[in-house]
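Consider one such protein record:
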Amino acid sequence: MTDRRQLLLDAAIRVLGTGGPRHLTHRAVDAEAGLPEGSASNRFRTREALVTGVFDRLVEVEALAWQRLAVDLPPGDVAAFAQVLGELIREFTDQRRVVTLARYALFVEAAVRPDLRPAIEAGRARLAERGEPLLAALGSTDPPAHFRMLLALIEGLLSNQLACPEDNFDPESAVAVLLRGFRAA
């Protein structure tokens, strides 16, 4: 990805994550990126192209997070996996809160725009390429199904913490319980 493209997409994520879908315009992205007016529309001719680019960038950001997760883990250690994933969940509700809110804004848009759903499915498939082997190494009896369950748990933890932040937020406990269940299933 070129530096300018990444700059524009990261700016679009900030616009989307702070203002929602209605604020995602080429002009708003240009302003957020600190680039001349017309920069975003030159790179992304339509709003749909911009939204697709944002989806791709969000998947890239999340795939890098899963990659980091894999690097930090000793093989087969459920407690370590739960700890690292819990830290990642906290990161996406704190320092990367805007990234998570942008992703949710696009999910809401996809609920009323079916043409966006293939991009979401492609993103999930890309994450599954990283996540399913991690679950297999932890003893999952059905890594594809269990990865979807883990994503559902993560989404619930993220959305609840974003909407009603808890001071004693403990995603590790929920993740650990689910992961131990994968071994028995």
